[in-house]
Amino acid sequence: MLKIENLHVKLEEEGKQILKGVSLEVPAGQVHAIMGPNGSGKSTLSYVLAGRDGYEVTEGAASLGDFDLLDHEPEERAAAGLFLAFQYPVEIPGVGNMTFLRTAVNAQRKSRGEPEMNAAEFLKLVRETAKTLNIDAEMLKRPVNVGFSGGEKKRNEILQMAMLQPRMCILDETDSGLDVDAMKLVADGVNGLRAPDRSFLVITHYQRLLDHIRPDVVHIMADGRIVQSGGPELALEVEHNGYADILKSVA
């Protein structure tokens, strides 16, 4: 599914090297988690995969199946099945949630050569999907994320993910700023989307999210590299002991 090989990335303006040889493979149907101290390059990795401006790939490759991610624009990556849930979802004043979702869904369907959904089809699907995620119908009528609480913004992103049905879902610290109840709602939404043909890369600081979204593999990132990988017990080790021992062992 997702394959990253020896990825080196620097900031375009500053020339500072952020990723220094990241190699990672997430097979279809698996959930992988990335943990690491601040400044280790976790969010940069998600931005580069999604195609955010401001970063220069100096070496390496990243692909989604046989689709070369780095050779395509962000909208093409999304159409190929890549989805990024942001740490801080942006507000889009003046754009209704329903309009935003229908436009996104139909843009992807069009890119795949599929017929666009008419208003009635879309309305039925989005209401059914929102209900499964415990999203109030009134939320669908509001501008995108405007006036939303932190938990509402994150649930709205899970709704977007559920509507778009991506192959590869990247969650960049989606638990940031959430209380326990909101985090569980988000995790339930993610777990409901787990499927043999869909993979997840969950970037987080905390074990608490991984109590609800149980990963198949946990990777520890430091100084722009993956320095250790293991099972869910690795996240527990970090929770109890921090990163110091792991970083010493790979120094």
UniProtKB/TrEMBL annotation:
<dbReference type="GO" id="GO:0005524">
    <property type="term" value="F:ATP binding"/>
</dbReference>
<dbReference type="InterPro" id="IPR003593">
    <property type="entry name" value="AAA+_ATPase"/>
</dbReference>
<keyword id="KW-0067">ATP-binding</keyword>
<dbReference type="InterPro" id="IPR027417">
    <property type="entry name" value="P-loop_NTPase"/>
</dbReference>
<keyword id="KW-0547">Nucleotide-binding</keyword>
<dbReference type="Pfam" id="PF00005">
    <property type="entry name" value="ABC_tran"/>
</dbReference>
<dbReference type="GO" id="GO:0016887">
    <property type="term" value="F:ATP hydrolysis activity"/>
</dbReference>
<feature type="domain" description="ABC transporter">
    <location>
        <begin position="2"/>
        <end position="248"/>
    </location>
</feature>
<protein>
    <submittedName>
        <fullName>Fe-S cluster assembly ATPase SufC</fullName>
    </submittedName>
</protein>
<dbReference type="InterPro" id="IPR017871">
    <property type="entry name" value="ABC_transporter-like_CS"/>
</dbReference>
<comment type="similarity">
    <text>Belongs to the ABC transporter superfamily. Ycf16 family.</text>
</comment>
<dbReference type="InterPro" id="IPR010230">
    <property type="entry name" value="FeS-cluster_ATPase_SufC"/>
</dbReference>
<dbReference type="InterPro" id="IPR003439">
    <property type="entry name" value="ABC_transporter-like_ATP-bd"/>
</dbReference>
